[in-house]
Amino acid sequence: MARTKSFTRRSRELPPNLQRTWQAHADKFVVPVARGDGYTTVAPDFRLDLGALFGRQCAVTVEIGSGTGEQAVHAAKANPDRDYLCFEVWVPGIAKLMSKALDAGVDNIRVIEADAQQAFPIIFDEATIAEVWTFFPDPWRKSRHHKRRLVSDDFAKDVARVLVDEGAWRLATDWDNYAWQMRDVIERADDFDNPYLGQRPDPADNDPMRGGFAPRWPGRLMTHFERRGIDQGRISHDIVGIRRPRHLAQ
Fold first, then answer.
1. Can you tell me the distance from the alpha carbon of 151 to that of 143, in angstroms, rounded to the nearest whole number?
2. What is the pLDDT of residues 83-116, one digit of tens each?
3. Rounded-to-integer distance, Cα 21 and Cα 193, Å
4. How many alpha carbons lie under 13 Å from residue 156 in its C-beta half-sphere?
5. Annotated catalytic residue: which of 138, 176, 193, 207?
6. Is 191 among the catalytic positions?
7. Is the dihedral of CA 35, 41, 47, 52 positive or negative?
8. Are 120 and 33 in contact (CB under 8 A)?
9. What is the pLDDT of residues 219-242, one digit of tens each?
């Protein structure tokens, strides 16, 4: 049966300049993975050795949907003592990420061309990731498509499994009802605490006094994507879940 995907697959075609970037640098930045039934899937027996991938042992942040790499490359340059692993299925975006990484002179960033929703339960060992970022995922605006949204109760369990104790799942969206859904997922999850419980209520919320939204995280860059949403009149919401220590979450 076909999977219900949280993304729309876009073209893998590259213009000549990005094709040259890909040919010259993909071996360094793009993680080779064993494929499953589809090109954006990973094989059920594929595992990722983070220490071998980056050549060291340090805190790893995973960004889901890195786009053209603005956020990840910015963070990688600002935090050379950490490593950054991105999931992206848009090949031109991956090539642009590589170009940005080269311009910034950073080598603590890698990218996997795969569906994070499918890959998370497979490739990571438990309690190996310091932070997970899910910034502006596809909102699937129509009600009948909400089931395609990445942030769900089931995916929260996958994120909780890979996060270290007290690690952070940082989320942001500029679609109001997705913000409410993200907040609800975090607050329903047995494995997460919302450190901003009841804070920053929003009158547009279906429960206007409930709140639960975080201040803008200083490490989250104002990307071209977010700026375009602001120009169209949308407001960004930040949500964060802190992974409960495992002896408390059981």
1. 15
2. 999 999 999 999 999 999 999 999 999 999 999 9
3. 42
4. 23
5. 138
6. no
7. positive
8. no
9. 999 999 899 999 999 999 999 999
